[in-house]
Specification:
By secondary structure, the protein is mostly helical. It has 17 helices and no strands. Helix 12 runs antiparallel to helix 16.
Length: 409
């Protein structure tokens, strides 16, 4: 979880700094969307699947430590860039490094804990997303205000290199399948056969798309929320970082843990709850996401943003737990990486980029209000995500039983 905190500090620090970077470098909202979303996501997911395949065969702890070193160094390098293209390349480097973080970690956690406890275990790991955003927004906002955006990148990037040494020396690499009832037979599927086999499962495919459209709303809104509050409500950047960090950090962490806890609690009776919980959370988040950008009250904005953060965060741990129930111990890193591939291409890659493009397109008629309407439009996508989760739940029990039977033959 601590490694995942650093992952999201380094990933999302750009978001709280982007208004200062935009003013310094003369960037457009579309360029900001590329920096905070698509450029990172494209290389993150491209490298994620082969690294996950490596993790399903190699030492996962060492892969995590190496990846942490790379993304931390590249984050620090962001503070030394001279133009947009250099910053873009540095962000690509962060994405390549972070590709080796979560899939190996998910696989290790599923070896540490049996199925009926994985939702909560993965939810504790997933809390790192929101604690990382909390620290990144809080530290980034105030460091930016007093020392500038370049110093913020250096301060959050360099400590990760020290943490990588700690991970390498202290974290235990678990035995494959040690918490599973069935034997951990080594998978012999070739790479493309394993990928196509997973994608052929309707529960896996639809759950991946549900997670992706949930993240489309989440990343699209959070990556431009600082800019929205600064431009439309004229709140200083330090205060924006403070309020956003508390909303996302506390609300998101609460939602992440609650999602895993609910899925484990109700999933003992019916494993479809591992997908019903994300469906209900994604659906319920939509009206609060819309209220956040439509209200003229800053106090109501923070309250509705907090609630939408809680609800949008319910999805990840149950989704990963459900996916790991469909594969054996030697396929779990790949399963996580494939979910992250779809989630990050659509969610992180297209979410912020879509908001930036819509904002630029609406600017001639809406002015500073263009960002408000761009964020309102993408909030509707939550209904699409909830629909995919409900479709996935219809197939989950049958495909879990079929997958277990195939592994035992």
């Amino acid at each position: 979880m601590v490694v995942y905190i650093f992952n999201f500090i380094d990933r999302q620090i750009l978001v709280i700094l982007q208004e200062s970077i935009k003013a310094d470098m003369g960037l457009s909202d579309t360029q900001l969307g590329l920096l905070s979303g698509f450029s990172f996501a494209l290389f993150y997911v491209t490298c994620g699947i082969p690294i996950a395949r490596w993790a399903d065969r190699g030492n996962r702890r060492n892969i995590v430590a190496l990846s942490l070193t790379v993304w931390s160094a590249m984050t620090a390098l962001c503070g030394a860039v001279a133009n947009f293209w250099q910053l873009l390349l540095a962000r690509i480097g962060v994405g390549v490094g972070e590709a080796g973080g979560s899939p190996p970690a998910h696989s290790m956690i599923s070896d540490y804990f049996p199925y009926e406890e994985r939702g909560r275990a993965l939810s504790i790991y997933s809390m790192g997303i929101y604690i990382g955003i909390l620290i990144g927004f809080l530290a980034g906002g105030w460091i930016n205000e007093f020392f500038g955006w370049r110093m913020a990148f250096l301060v959050v990037g360099l400590p990760g290199i020290l943490l990588a040494v700690v991970v390498r020396l202290t974290v235990a690499e678990p035995r494959r399948g040690m918490s599973d009832e069935e034997p951990a037979a080594r998978g012999q599927d070739r790479f493309m056969a394993a990928v196509s086999g997973l994608w052929s499962l309707k529960s896996f495919r639809y759950a991946s798309l549900g997670a992706a459209f949930n993240s489309f709303v989440g990343y699209g809104s959070i990556n431009f929320m600082p800019s929205f509050v600064i431009r439309v409500h004229e709140v200083p950047v330090g205060l924006v970082g403070t309020y956003l960090s508390l909303g996302v950090g506390i609300g998101g962490a609460l939602g992440a843990y609650t999602g895993g806890w609910l899925a484990d609690r109700f999933g003992r009776r019916d494993r479809r709850w591992y997908l019903w919980v994300p469906a209900l959370g994604t659906l319920a988040a939509a009206p609060f996401s819309m209220l956040t950008v439509l209200t003229g009250s800053v106090d109501l904005l923070w309250f509705s943003f907090f609630l939408s953060s809680v609800l949008l965060a319910l999805f990840l741990a149950p989704t990963i737990a459900a996916a790991h129930g469909l594969v054996g111990p030697h396929g779990r890193a790949l399963a996580s990486a494939m979910i992250y591939f779809v989630l990050n291409i659509i969610g992180l890659g297209l979410g912020p980029l879509t908001v930036g493009v819509l904002s630029d397109a609406l600017a001639p008629t809406a002015g500073d209000e263009s960002l408000r309407w761009a964020l309102f439009i993408i909030a509707q996508v939550a209904f699409v995500g909830a629909g995919f989760y409900l479709l996935a739940a219809r197939h989950l029990r049958g495909e879990m039983a079929q997958a277990a039977a195939r592994r035992n033959t």
